[in-house]
Every structure is written in C-alpha cells, then in structure tokens.
C-alpha cells in the first residue's frame, strides 16, 4: 500500500463563503487510481448514505453510530448518523458532533462553512427539526434563522444553487406548505418558495417519492427520479426534467418512455440515482429491478443527452445482469457506479456472468462515450451496496455498508485519489 498526501491547495473549495454555484460533480482529468488513500477514518457499523465536502472538511451521514480514526490508539467515538473529518489528515473533527435522532440520507454543502442535512430524524441538538436542518461545520450547531420541517417521511436528496435549496423525498409538505416529493426553499431561512411547485403526482401509487435528483452545472435544469407518473399534469414516468432558472417549476419539453418498460412489479420505482456530466450535456441514471435481458432498463446505468426537445432514448445502457446499482458520479472521463453488482457489460446474465461480462464487484467505471466498462476495477466487498459516490478535484469518495475497498480495510468510507 502507498500512502498519498493530498495537497492542501486542491482541498479548498471555491465559494465556501457567500453564495454557492450549482452543485455538480467535479470534472476530472483522468480516472482515479485503484488504490484508496490510507488515512480516511472508519464508520464501525451501519451504512454511509451521504457525503459532502465543505472546504477542507468531509461531512458524512448515514445509519452508523460510532467512528474511529485510522492508525491511532484513540478509542472509537460515538457519532450517531453524522460525523466529519479533515480531508487532508482523515482525523475525525471533535468539534462537529451534532445530535440527530435518526438516519441521515442527504447532505449538501452550504455557504459560510455550513452543511444542509436531510434524513429521517425528528430533532437536531434537542430542537424540533424534522427531516431537514442546516449546521455549522465548525461547531455542529444549528444555523440561526434557518427553519424547515417536513410533515412526515424523510428527505432523501438535496441540491444547492446559489440561495436556492432543493429537497426531495416521500414527504407531502414542508413548513405546512403542500409539496409532493419536491420543494425549493430559501437557503437562508428555510422558507418554501411559494411560486415553485413541480406538481408531481404518482397515479396508482401510494405516494410520490423522489429518490434522487441532479442539477445541471448552470443550475437551470433539474432532473428528478423516483415514484412519479406526472409533472405539472404531463406524463413523466419515473423521471422528470424541469426548467428551474425562473420563479416557477416549468416542465421541460424533454421526456423519455424508457422507464415505462417493466422491471420487478413490486417496485413503484426502480430508479435509484442520477447525475449530470460536468458540462451539462448529458446525465446518467442507475437502477434496480431484478429483470434482465437486452433492451431492459433494470439493474443498470443509462446515459441520456440533455439537449433537444421531445422524446429521448438512452444513448447507451450498461447492465449488471440482475444486481442493483444505487449511486452514480459523472466526471467527464468516467461514469462511476456503485451498488451490489458483480459485473458490468452483462445484458445476457441472470445473476450469472453472461457473454461479454466483466467482473466489477461493488464498484466500477464506465466509458461515458461508449457505455462499456473501463479497466478500473479496485473491487469492494459488496454487501447491500455503495450508496454514496462523490467526485472532487482530488479524488473520489465512496460510502457503503462494508469494510473492504480496494482489497484493504476501509470502514464504510474511503477515497480513491487522482494519480
């Protein structure tokens, strides 16, 4: 194993103070190495579900309860659902120990060294704050003036563009304002944007549920995926693209019927993740679904071009052969996918290695142009799956529910650096 040090210069995120640009994964010049750095800390139980980088601090959320620094004699520290560490040294930040009483599913960097937190919690630091809060990264305290609560359910995905905060999940109201599955808030106060309502509906389903969303790098378009059948009264099965540059949520003249194709009939949605390319020209979705075979959208990754009007078909689809993909990060040179897959390039497999399949246990990379697996194959102990993949200017963070990454011990989180 080789220990790599990260130059501090690349760890300082632009826009840490004041207004943030639209959140998007960082363009990288090459594929990351297959050898994770040795200094990241370890979550000792549960699952890492979300990762956000705020300046030189990495904030981690999930269902874990305790964490430990790498390579020290310090005892494990109790950190239910949320902790932070120094991106350069890996040392867990002792000053960041907010008290949340439920799982954290979503994180987004905020202005002025803060982080937005979404999940299934009801209280934060002893105060009512159901599903959503904003915290100081320095102290873990709730940010004064920000107040937002969902009515029930949880918050599963967050995105920030300037002073606008987007939240998605299975909720039906925030701050008493009806919003089915998706809302836009004032990032400073938490107030619901009264003019912005995507009017998502889910015909013949129990409820609307946004599983994930992605903002284009310019902040003008948002793609939401999950249990939905209509947006603004227009048919949009499992995926809706919205024009969000103005005061209202305008359903874009962009749609796809790709996800009308059947997968496991017990699922109200089989979409699990989505991410825009750094240049905004395309986005990639990942799915579960159980049914396999050429032409299906189940258990795979798919690229869609974001330009143009009307109906769109996927540019390519890469199937696992029957294993779920949960997370995706597009960096321009690679599409990183995580789940509990065993293979990629496997349209003919049925929980088996079919013709042409390549081994990519737990994590893999896809060529964004051809849709075929890249040689990168660090491996990960599969478990339920990798729930969080986040690209930065210096590497790729991966969060999951297992403790082997790149054939080394890494408790539920690790980072692959750029060469």
Automatic annotation (TrEMBL):
Keyword Signal included in the entry's annotation: yes
Database matches in SUPFAM superfamilies: Quinoprotein alcohol dehydrogenase-like
Record keywords, A-Z: Signal
Pfam families: DUF5122
Signal sequence segment: 1-24
The name this protein goes by in its record: PKD domain containing protein
């Amino acid at each position: 194993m080789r220990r790599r040090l990260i130059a501090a210069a690349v760890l300082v995120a632009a826009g840490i103070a004041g207004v943030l640009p639209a959140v998007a994964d960082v363009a990288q010049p090459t594929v990351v190495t297959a050898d994770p750095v040795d200094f990241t800390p370890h979550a000792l139980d549960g699952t890492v579900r979300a990762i956000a980088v705020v300046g030189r601090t990495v904030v981690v959320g999930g269902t874990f309860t305790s964490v430990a620094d790498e390579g020290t004699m310090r005892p494990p520290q109790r950190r239910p659902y949320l902790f932070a560490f120094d991106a350069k040294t890996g040392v867990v930040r002792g000053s960041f120990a907010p008290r949340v009483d439920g799982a954290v599913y979503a994180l987004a960097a905020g202005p002025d060294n803060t982080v937005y937190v979404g999940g299934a919690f009801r209280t934060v630091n002893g105060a009512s704050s159901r599903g959503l809060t904003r915290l100081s990264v320095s102290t873990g305290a709730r940010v004064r003036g920000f107040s937002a609560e969902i009515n029930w359910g949880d918050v599963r995905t967050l995105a920030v563009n300037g002073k606008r905060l987007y939240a998605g999940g299975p909720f039906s109201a925030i701050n008493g304002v009806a919003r089915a599955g998706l809302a836009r808030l004032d990032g400073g106060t938490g107030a619901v944007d009264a003019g912005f309502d995507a009017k998502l509906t889910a015909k013949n389903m129990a409820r609307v549920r946004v599983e994930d969303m992605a903002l284009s790098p310019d902040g003008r378009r948002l793609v939401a995926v999950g249990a939905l059948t209509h947006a603004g009264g227009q048919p949009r099965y499992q995926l809706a693209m919205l024009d969000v540059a103005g005061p209202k949520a305008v359903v874009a003249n962009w749609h796809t019927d790709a996800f009308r194709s059947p997968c496991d009939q017990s699922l109200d949605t089989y979409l699990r993740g989505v991410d825009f390319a750094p240049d905004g020209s395309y986005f990639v979705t990942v799915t579960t679904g159980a049914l396999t075979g050429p032409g299906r959208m189940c258990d795979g990754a798919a690229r869609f071009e974001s330009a143009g009007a009307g109906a769109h078909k996927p540019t390519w689809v890469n199937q696992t052969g029957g294993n779920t993909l949960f997370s995706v990060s597009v960096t321009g040179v690679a599409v990183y996918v995580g789940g509990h897959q065993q293979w990629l390039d496997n349209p003919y497999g049925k929980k088996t290695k079919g013709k042409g399949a390549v081994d990519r246990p737990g994590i893999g990379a896809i060529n964004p142009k051809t849709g075929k697996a890249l040689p990168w194959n660090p491996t990960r102990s599969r478990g339920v799956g990798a729930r969080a993949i986040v690209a930065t200017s210096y590497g790729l963070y991966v969060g999951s529910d297992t403790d082997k990454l790149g054939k080394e011990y890494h408790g539920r989180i690790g980072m692959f650096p750029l060469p």
